[in-house]
Amino acid sequence: MLDLGLPGMDGQEVLELLRAQGSRMPVVVLTARDSVTDTVSALEGGADDYMPKPFRFAELQARIRLRLRQAQEQATPGTPGRDAVEAGGVRLDLRTRRATVAGTEVDLSAREFALAEIFMLNAGQVLSREQLLDHVWGFDFDPGSNVVDVYVGYLRRKFGATTIATVRGMGYRFER
Q: What's the Cα-to-Cα distance from 97 to each of 41, 44, 45, 84, 112, rounded to whole Å?
Protein backbone atom coordinates (compact mmCIF):
# COMPACT_ATOMS: atom_id res chain seq x y z
CA MET A 1 0.00 0.00 0.00
CA LEU A 2 1.24 3.45 -0.82
CA ASP A 3 -0.16 6.78 0.36
CA LEU A 4 0.43 9.67 -2.04
CA GLY A 5 0.59 12.22 0.81
CA LEU A 6 3.93 11.17 2.31
CA PRO A 7 6.19 13.65 4.12
CA GLY A 8 9.40 14.48 2.32
CA MET A 9 8.93 12.59 -0.95
CA ASP A 10 5.51 12.49 -2.61
CA GLY A 11 4.01 8.99 -2.98
CA GLN A 12 3.78 9.48 -6.75
CA GLU A 13 7.55 10.03 -6.82
CA VAL A 14 8.09 6.86 -4.75
CA LEU A 15 5.96 4.91 -7.22
CA GLU A 16 7.83 6.29 -10.22
CA LEU A 17 11.15 5.48 -8.55
CA LEU A 18 10.04 1.89 -7.85
CA ARG A 19 8.97 1.37 -11.45
CA ALA A 20 12.11 3.05 -12.83
CA GLN A 21 14.19 0.57 -10.81
CA GLY A 22 12.27 -2.27 -12.45
CA SER A 23 10.25 -3.30 -9.41
CA ARG A 24 7.12 -5.28 -10.30
CA MET A 25 5.90 -5.29 -6.70
CA PRO A 26 2.11 -4.78 -6.68
CA VAL A 27 1.22 -1.29 -5.51
CA VAL A 28 -2.21 -0.30 -4.24
CA VAL A 29 -2.48 3.46 -3.81
CA LEU A 30 -4.54 4.43 -0.77
CA THR A 31 -5.04 8.18 -0.57
CA ALA A 32 -7.31 11.11 0.24
CA ARG A 33 -6.75 12.42 -3.28
CA ASP A 34 -9.83 11.48 -5.28
CA SER A 35 -9.64 13.53 -8.45
CA VAL A 36 -9.66 11.84 -11.83
CA THR A 37 -6.30 13.47 -12.60
CA ASP A 38 -4.70 11.93 -9.49
CA THR A 39 -6.21 8.51 -10.24
CA VAL A 40 -5.07 8.52 -13.87
CA SER A 41 -1.62 9.82 -12.94
CA ALA A 42 -1.08 7.09 -10.34
CA LEU A 43 -2.37 4.29 -12.59
CA GLU A 44 -0.38 5.45 -15.59
CA GLY A 45 2.63 5.90 -13.30
CA GLY A 46 2.59 2.20 -12.50
CA ALA A 47 0.08 1.68 -9.66
CA ASP A 48 -1.80 -1.60 -9.85
CA ASP A 49 -4.87 -0.22 -8.10
CA TYR A 50 -6.16 3.04 -6.61
CA MET A 51 -8.47 3.48 -3.63
CA PRO A 52 -9.53 6.93 -2.46
CA LYS A 53 -10.32 7.47 1.23
CA PRO A 54 -12.69 6.82 2.84
CA PHE A 55 -12.63 3.17 1.86
CA ARG A 56 -14.17 -0.06 3.06
CA PHE A 57 -11.67 -2.35 4.72
CA ALA A 58 -13.15 -5.53 3.21
CA GLU A 59 -12.77 -4.06 -0.29
CA LEU A 60 -9.17 -3.06 0.44
CA GLN A 61 -8.43 -6.61 1.61
CA ALA A 62 -10.02 -8.07 -1.52
CA ARG A 63 -8.02 -5.79 -3.80
CA ILE A 64 -4.76 -6.61 -1.99
CA ARG A 65 -5.49 -10.36 -2.23
CA LEU A 66 -6.19 -9.95 -5.96
CA ARG A 67 -2.94 -8.08 -6.60
CA LEU A 68 -0.93 -10.57 -4.54
CA ARG A 69 -2.53 -13.48 -6.40
CA GLN A 70 -1.65 -11.85 -9.72
CA ALA A 71 1.93 -11.29 -8.54
CA GLN A 72 2.14 -14.95 -7.50
CA GLU A 73 0.85 -16.07 -10.91
CA GLN A 74 3.51 -13.96 -12.60
CA ALA A 75 6.25 -15.35 -10.34
CA THR A 76 5.29 -18.99 -10.88
CA PRO A 77 7.22 -20.47 -13.83
CA GLY A 78 4.95 -21.63 -16.62
CA THR A 79 1.97 -19.65 -15.31
CA PRO A 80 1.04 -16.66 -17.41
CA GLY A 81 0.66 -13.41 -15.48
CA ARG A 82 -2.55 -11.50 -15.78
CA ASP A 83 -1.82 -8.02 -17.03
CA ALA A 84 -4.99 -8.03 -19.11
CA VAL A 85 -8.40 -9.64 -19.26
CA GLU A 86 -10.12 -10.42 -22.56
CA ALA A 87 -13.67 -11.60 -23.19
CA GLY A 88 -16.45 -10.89 -25.67
CA GLY A 89 -14.26 -8.73 -27.90
CA VAL A 90 -13.34 -6.48 -24.96
CA ARG A 91 -9.82 -6.17 -23.55
CA LEU A 92 -8.96 -4.56 -20.23
CA ASP A 93 -5.34 -3.73 -19.53
CA LEU A 94 -5.14 -4.03 -15.73
CA ARG A 95 -1.86 -2.16 -15.49
CA THR A 96 -2.66 0.90 -17.60
CA ARG A 97 -6.42 0.76 -16.87
CA ARG A 98 -7.22 1.04 -20.58
CA ALA A 99 -10.11 -0.66 -22.32
CA THR A 100 -10.45 -1.59 -25.97
CA VAL A 101 -13.39 -2.94 -27.91
CA ALA A 102 -12.48 -4.62 -31.20
CA GLY A 103 -9.13 -2.79 -31.09
CA THR A 104 -10.65 0.66 -30.48
CA GLU A 105 -9.89 2.32 -27.16
CA VAL A 106 -12.91 3.38 -25.09
CA ASP A 107 -12.92 5.67 -22.08
CA LEU A 108 -14.14 4.15 -18.83
CA SER A 109 -14.62 5.82 -15.47
CA ALA A 110 -13.02 4.13 -12.45
CA ARG A 111 -16.38 2.54 -11.50
CA GLU A 112 -17.03 1.39 -15.06
CA PHE A 113 -13.57 -0.19 -15.17
CA ALA A 114 -14.09 -1.95 -11.83
CA LEU A 115 -17.48 -3.25 -12.98
CA ALA A 116 -16.08 -4.41 -16.32
CA GLU A 117 -13.17 -6.12 -14.54
CA ILE A 118 -15.41 -8.15 -12.20
CA PHE A 119 -17.65 -9.09 -15.13
CA MET A 120 -14.75 -10.19 -17.31
CA LEU A 121 -12.96 -12.11 -14.56
CA ASN A 122 -16.23 -14.03 -14.18
CA ALA A 123 -17.25 -14.16 -17.85
CA GLY A 124 -20.09 -16.58 -18.49
CA GLN A 125 -21.15 -16.61 -14.82
CA VAL A 126 -24.22 -14.88 -13.43
CA LEU A 127 -23.38 -12.13 -10.95
CA SER A 128 -26.11 -10.75 -8.71
CA ARG A 129 -26.66 -7.05 -8.17
CA GLU A 130 -25.54 -7.56 -4.55
CA GLN A 131 -22.25 -9.14 -5.63
CA LEU A 132 -21.61 -6.27 -8.03
CA LEU A 133 -22.54 -3.67 -5.41
CA ASP A 134 -20.19 -5.28 -2.89
CA HIS A 135 -17.28 -5.45 -5.30
CA VAL A 136 -17.59 -2.08 -7.01
CA TRP A 137 -19.38 0.19 -4.53
CA GLY A 138 -18.72 -1.49 -1.19
CA PHE A 139 -20.80 -3.15 1.49
CA ASP A 140 -22.50 0.00 2.79
CA PHE A 141 -24.17 0.93 -0.49
CA ASP A 142 -27.98 0.88 -0.57
CA PRO A 143 -29.07 -2.50 -2.03
CA GLY A 144 -32.29 -0.88 -3.29
CA SER A 145 -30.34 1.48 -5.52
CA ASN A 146 -30.44 1.11 -9.30
CA VAL A 147 -26.79 2.18 -9.66
CA VAL A 148 -25.77 -1.28 -10.95
CA ASP A 149 -28.45 -1.14 -13.66
CA VAL A 150 -27.32 2.35 -14.66
CA TYR A 151 -23.66 1.34 -14.95
CA VAL A 152 -24.50 -1.87 -16.81
CA GLY A 153 -26.28 0.42 -19.29
CA TYR A 154 -23.14 2.55 -19.62
CA LEU A 155 -21.03 -0.55 -20.34
CA ARG A 156 -23.55 -1.88 -22.86
CA ARG A 157 -23.35 1.40 -24.78
CA LYS A 158 -19.55 1.22 -24.81
CA PHE A 159 -19.06 -2.54 -25.30
CA GLY A 160 -22.14 -3.45 -27.34
CA ALA A 161 -25.73 -4.15 -26.34
CA THR A 162 -25.34 -7.94 -26.31
CA THR A 163 -22.09 -8.07 -24.31
CA ILE A 164 -23.86 -8.12 -20.93
CA ALA A 165 -26.99 -10.25 -20.65
CA THR A 166 -29.71 -9.74 -18.06
CA VAL A 167 -30.66 -12.95 -16.29
CA ARG A 168 -34.15 -12.28 -14.93
CA GLY A 169 -34.41 -12.49 -11.17
CA MET A 170 -30.73 -13.33 -10.82
CA GLY A 171 -28.46 -10.57 -12.13
CA TYR A 172 -26.16 -10.14 -15.12
CA ARG A 173 -23.77 -12.28 -17.16
CA PHE A 174 -20.86 -11.07 -19.29
CA GLU A 175 -21.01 -13.02 -22.54
CA ARG A 176 -17.76 -14.54 -23.79
A: 11, 8, 11, 9, 11
